[in-house]
Amino acid sequence: MSAWKAYKALLTKRENLQKAMQDPRVKTTIRAQMASPAPPLGPALGQRGVNVGNFCKEFNTVTENIKNATILPVTVHVRPDRTYEIEIETPTTKWLLMQAAGIRKEKQEDDEITGKLSVKHIYEIAKIKSTDKAMIGVPIKVFNLKFFFGMKCPFLNCFKREICQMVIERAAEIGIKVQYEDLDPDEYKQFLDMRREVVKQQLEEIAKQEAAKLLRI
């Protein structure tokens, strides 16, 4: 056998091994009613022998009753015969938080406040997330939010598996300030109006930086 044929045989064995070891699950996020064959979904399903066109049609039909463009975590379990099962979870925590706060952009600076929510909002979002398969058996809250909120608790890490705390931590990453008191609608409207101006300036600055990069090329 020539060296070239031996090399091709080795590549074929490697490809077959990779296919055999390939995870039969595809975990991704898809917007409700907006599945398409475009990457990364199309290639990921195609590599596993799934008819991508049929999948997109089925997914978009299944999510017809969900608000259009809602970001949904999805797991596709592909069987050996190339049939599949679609597992759709509740919208991502980030999407729920940003929708509740009425914002479209995450924070750019560490101390930037992009929006505000009350603990009531947090609790309602936690209740939604508690229905996810991964959250079965996880308590929504195991302590009084009013007692612990804003306090320096050395044992806070003990509550990592408590859904309310997970949601609060995700809110902090986005820049959403969580407060115990209810939000004043008029004050919050003024805050959002100011935020729109800040975001506009941030986008203009980003555009200037991108333009400057192009000029240097």
TrEMBL record:
Gene Ontology, cellular component aspect: mitochondrial large ribosomal subunit
Keyword Transcription included in the entry's annotation: no
Organism domain of life: Eukaryota
SUPFAM superfamilies associated with the record: Ribosomal L11/L12e N-terminal domain, Ribosomal protein L11, C-terminal domain
Large ribosomal subunit protein uL11 C-terminal domain mapped to chain residues: 90-134
Signal peptide: none
Keywords: Ribonucleoprotein, Ribosomal protein
GO biological process: translation
Claim: Ribonucleoprotein is one of the keywords in the record: yes
Gene3D superfamilies: Ribosomal protein L11, C-terminal domain (1.10.10.250), Ribosomal protein L11/L12, N-terminal domain (3.30.1550.10)
Residue span(s) of domain Large ribosomal subunit protein uL11 N-terminal: 26-84
GO MF annotation terms: large ribosomal subunit rRNA binding; structural constituent of ribosome
Family: Belongs to the universal ribosomal protein uL11 family.
PANTHER family linked to this entry: 60S RIBOSOMAL PROTEIN L12, LARGE RIBOSOMAL SUBUNIT PROTEIN UL11M
Assembly with partners or alone: Component of the mitochondrial ribosome large subunit (39S) which comprises a 16S rRNA and about 50 distinct proteins.
Protein name: Large ribosomal subunit protein uL11m
